Amino acid sequence: MKNKALLLGLLSIGFFAISCSNDDNEGETIVPIQGKYNLSKTGTIVNGQEVLIDAIENESGCNRDYLDLRVSNAAVIGDYDGTDCALTETTGTYVRSHNDLTITIGNVSSVSDIMNLTNKELKIKDKTTGVITVYTR
């Protein structure tokens, strides 16, 4: 009798653990989005295939441009430019809603799908232009 009660208890715990999976995130990753990301690649989808190239926005001989998403919901875009690699930082805000990322600089907002978010990569696709941008940490 004790064995049956123990078996029933273990089965109950197993079923409870299986039934408590979080399906409410609709594919959303649980990796935090906050962090500093270096611009790596850009591209688009051609004939159903993703085509990415090294980001031409990165000046040769300079640090890579970046996107810094801060805990305070500030978004800082760093752009190295010219032969002296002068850094220009533009600050705005960002909002993440499920797998959408909205970045607002001044009065201009861009909304992107988060295609991939890991501890090493943020890949987004602009909902208006279809441009894919890959950032790495």
UniProtKB/TrEMBL annotation:
Residues 33-124 form the Lipocalin-like domain. InterPro entries: Lipocalin-like. Coiled coil: none annotated. It comes from the Bacteria. The keyword Signal applies. Pfam families: Lipocalin_4 (PF13648). Keywords: Signal. Residues 1-21 form the signal peptide. This is Lipocalin family protein.
